[in-house]
Amino acid sequence: MANLSVRIGSLKLKNPVLVASGTFGYGGDVPDLSDVNTIGGIVTKSLSMKPRDGNPPDRIVETAGGMLNSIGLANIGVHEFIKNKLPGLRKFDTAIIANIAASSVEEYCDVLTLLEAQEGIHGYEINVSCPNVKEGGLSFGTDPVITAEITRRLRKLTPKCLLMKLTPNVTHVSEFARGVAGEGADGISLINTVVGMAIDHRRRTPKLSTVTGGLSGPAIKPIALAKVYEAALAVKIPIIGIGGIMNTGDALEFLIAGATAIQVGTANFIDPSASMKIAAGLGEYCDANNIANVKDLVGTLKVRADISVVKSWL
Amino acid sequence: MANLSVRIGSLKLKNPVLVASGTFGYGGDVPDLSDVNTIGGIVTKSLSMKPRDGNPPDRIVETAGGMLNSIGLANIGVHEFIKNKLPGLRKFDTAIIANIAASSVEEYCDVLTLLEAQEGIHGYEINVSCPNVKEGGLSFGTDPVITAEITRRLRKLTPKCLLMKLTPNVTHVSEFARGVAGEGADGISLINTVVGMAIDHRRRTPKLSTVTGGLSGPAIKPIALAKVYEAALAVKIPIIGIGGIMNTGDALEFLIAGATAIQVGTANFIDPSASMKIAAGLGEYCDANNIANVKDLVGTLKVRADISVVKSWL
Amino acid sequence: MRQGFYRVESVREIAGNIHLLSLHAPQIASAVRAGQFLNIKTRDMYLPLLRRPFSVYNRNGDSLEIIFNVVGLGTRILASGPSREPLDVIGPLGNAFGTGGDFEEAVLVAGGLGIAPMPMLTAELKRAGKKIHTYIGARNGSQIVREHMENVSVATDDGSAGSRGTVVDLLRTHLGNSSMTRPKIFSCGPTPMLRALAALADEAGIPCELSLESPMACGIGICQGCPVEVKDGPRKYALVCRDGTVFDGKRVVL
Amino acid sequence: MRQGFYRVESVREIAGNIHLLSLHAPQIASAVRAGQFLNIKTRDMYLPLLRRPFSVYNRNGDSLEIIFNVVGLGTRILASGPSREPLDVIGPLGNAFGTGGDFEEAVLVAGGLGIAPMPMLTAELKRAGKKIHTYIGARNGSQIVREHMENVSVATDDGSAGSRGTVVDLLRTHLGNSSMTRPKIFSCGPTPMLRALAALADEAGIPCELSLESPMACGIGICQGCPVEVKDGPRKYALVCRDGTVFDGKRVVL
Ligand SMILES: Cc1cc2nc3c(=O)[nH]c(=O)nc-3n(C[C@H](O)[C@H](O)[C@H](O)COP(=O)(O)OP(=O)(O)OC[C@H]3O[C@@H](n4cnc5c(N)ncnc54)[C@H](O)[C@@H]3O)c2cc1C
Ligand SMILES: Cc1cc2nc3c(=O)[nH]c(=O)nc-3n(C[C@H](O)[C@H](O)[C@H](O)COP(=O)(O)OP(=O)(O)OC[C@H]3O[C@@H](n4cnc5c(N)ncnc54)[C@H](O)[C@@H]3O)c2cc1C
Ligand SMILES: Cc1cc2nc3c(=O)[nH]c(=O)nc-3n(C[C@H](O)[C@H](O)[C@H](O)COP(=O)(O)O)c2cc1C
Ligand SMILES: Cc1cc2nc3c(=O)[nH]c(=O)nc-3n(C[C@H](O)[C@H](O)[C@H](O)COP(=O)(O)O)c2cc1C
Ligand code: FES
Ligand code: FES
Q1: Which residues contact D12 (CB under 8 A, 6 or more apart)?
Q2: pLDDT of residue B314
């Protein structure tokens, strides 16, 4: 049996498969349909200090091979999370990563500080990349200085695994990757959703209440892979690859491109046990191909020597 | 019968449907399968001063709802175009827009100057956004200063319709839109392809010889619409909407989002008469909905008054 | 709720553009209640990407039936007949109509495909010993389904069956002309209809349960994609898929 | 070349995982030549997005046949049997084998599904009065198709039919043992096989035409997606779909 464990900063995951923030509730919501003990970890819905209502309906539109969402970080707030959700999560044998969203640097710090005082949280993922809120979100995530600043401030507050979740909606994601790596982040989660929109041409109205939303699912996998590849070439810290991962083959593409671990997002909506199947699939793949350690796959893309990769985006 | 004509700078198109650069050869390549006289215009394959071989195989990969290409601007060069292709194009009753790609500002100017001396070209589209070449392409298209500079230089060389074709692979496309509008471009073509990649996980090799390529097709339509909407809010010059347009409904979405005209790209590969069907479909739609002028549809998106659009990307 | 692969037994058109699909799903059939829904993957690939939600129309031993209109790709695929492969289904989902409560006469109001949950609801109400009045609204007579329903009155937009006008207007007239003993309204249909009905129920002081629709990504409460504004409670929105689809008409802002 | 909708008459498995699909396409059938291909939209939607290219296997009056392996989604859909809707097909595409030239004996070499163009080629060569030798390579005996072919020798990787080894090795032996009068090689198959064959032809001084494959977006010369490196001419690449698929073995760099 291959060793599937991977390390991100101080955090050891039993396998490189996590569920992505916002796509699996708070982690324990669908016990009938999934067994989270078989995956590497759970990333919670983004938590803010106060509960957030989120955006008005409609929040969801299907597109070709993908979907747009404009949830707007609807969440119960960190206090209720600690009170009502965390106790249940502690019972799972998997890493619990709290995702934090905020509209100010202080709010990030305050939420993290609150969580840091709790048992049972193994790491943090900092969402500086939500396209669906007016404050924070992309206004932070598209500014390399603020992104680095948030990293620096949070790094001081925790020795636990600190992941910065970046947006693909920037010219050079490598610039952001270098920034957060320089400030001591343990890893980079890539990608959050891609800004997109859809129109009901009969009514001439946007299909999402907020006009634009975030595109996810198989449609964005090629974009996500390119961003992961770019970031992995730019920094030494682990990348957690996200975007359109539906099956084991997709997960392998991300590992080969340079991701140390991966997250399954939209696929959970279609099959709540998709991540579990992928974790099992990675094991089978390694066994079938005599790969003793899954981490030996990371960054093994073979690029033809006679071809100089077009890296104008780097 | 509705009036389908639209104006872009000095150029009047009989209808707002064009075929996109690189997706319809030089314009007259498939007479058996299409009738270009029924569409608003043809945008040629990107032309450079010297012929370009383009990238090694493989150049094409299909993805979920889309495709990646890495053609690398393979083209016969402007001289052969003038000699062997332009005479045929002159016979068509449709606008001929020469797309120009170059690896230096001088080359853009030189190619345009050569074409300007010819009969039968109605406008230019300047490709500063190809993701698949090492020089020019994205290194220009992601730099607002160079993009504006190219516009300024070319504007001096022609009174004809000058379109700048921008890349979506930037943080704020509106910044680029304002730049080229300020330098006198007549219109903005949006979007070129989105950087993406795909991996053969069995061989652990990239599926494209150049590793990354450009994503096109229905998968990117939501992204393209959002970029068009962003640019249309930022500038007054016409936008030509491009990206995943497969049918009349898609074209309508772009017009409603703010595009004055649209281009059909990847759809040509699947149905070489897709653009003709869309042009006819727009006519039927206008007639059925009592729209006297197709241009009355442009920018008619109704946004709910009680909702402030999330514009963190603007 | 469970996820399973279930064989499609048959698909047939039962009225103008309305298809009935029968699914062999014993595990769901034994648990489902009126007002609950199934979330169906119409095809094993990324187009359509998401599952499609459908109310349970009827239970038939080990089989469950749904009815639907062909409106887009997902329903087109379902209508094209049983495929060789079984369908991937999650269900039963959502809460259910409150059939057991403190009322005597049940007023079922359905608009268009909102008839979908009514047969199961009728059966449950009958078991609970309630008197049933059913009001069905449709565009025209060809789109009326009445099977498994009781005491049906019909309104059509074009008057081609029953009275001309909306089903809410029809109900308003009936309520004016008759007197019911401790009635309760149960409804499913397009949002404008539900809005009008909730207003009528409020006026008339009749309790009223509405089954709502919303675009859904997951159908199981993990995406926050299906909000409906609620008047009570500390949160602005409830989730249609998890907190509903059935809501007290007084509680929601439509 | 033309685009049309053509009815699928039948789909059946003719050898291990090899399917034969018959298409009622009179307009293409009357024009097609050996070595040309069809570009088929396997399903009317965006997944699969692109058309799928297939060599014409045989002509049967107004019908055209193709054969294929199930390798991915497009071929899976085609193999699932005739659908109600006709298929959207563009064809005939590409150039054709040069069957009319200055040679007496035709040596047909096919690897795997590279047998696809051989029946039509055989028929054309027979009409041109050529003597034909056919060499077929396959993984194993169950994947050998010989219908409509002449004078067949077989090589399989596992020796389960014909000689064990590659078809190029088999041909090499035959060429060593026999002498042909003004032969010409025609081949289709995997690139490594074609590469080895081109080398053998070169050695032996036999003219050789190869039908190549490439990923294709359009199949009609408008995307520049299907380059093959060529040794002659001013351009580095030719287009497989438009300048081929048949190339002189001496001309291409594989
Ligand atoms: C809880 C619930 C129960 C439902 N029960 C029934 C039923 O019993 N019979 C029936 O005919 N229809 C029912 N619907 C509506 C049904 O789900 C849609 O008609 C169906 O999803 C359309 O799918 P499509 O692919 O054919 O259409 P498309 O228009 O191609 O679908 C595109 C997207 O829009 C969504 N969508 C489209 N119409 C609706 C709608 N009315 N409500 C919510 N989302 C929609 C789809 O789910 C999909 O994500 C129900 C909806 C919900 C939420
Ligand atoms: C000119 C030409 C003639 C062909 N003739 C035949 C034939 O007669 N019989 C046959 O079985 N196959 C033939 N092929 C290969 C056939 O086109 C592929 O097997 C088919 O496209 C696979 O589609 P899929 O959706 O099942 O597979 P997928 O792997 O899902 O296809 C994904 C993408 O890869 C491309 N692709 C996959 N395999 C190939 C391949 N071998 N060559 C080129 N592109 C490929 C597809 O077109 C598609 O764009 C031919 C290919 C070409 C270029
Ligand atoms: C409905 C929905 C809600 C999401 N909510 C969050 C969130 O709260 N915080 C966050 O960091 N990312 C959120 N995401 C982004 C996902 O975690 C993930 O980065 C993205 O969807 C791409 O992965 P996928 O294509 O596998 O879905 C959300 C995505 C979706 C589709
Ligand atoms: C195969 C291919 C070749 C292309 N070549 C060019 C090109 O030479 N110049 C250019 O400006 N854009 C080129 N494009 C980009 C298209 O013109 C268009 O902007 C893009 O494909 C998005 O539209 P679509 O989704 O409709 O294809 C090419 C696109 C494809 C798919
Ligand atoms: S549809 Fe996902 S929470 Fe309701
Ligand atoms: S496949 Fe498009 S040019 Fe050959």
Answers
A1: D19, D20
A2: 42
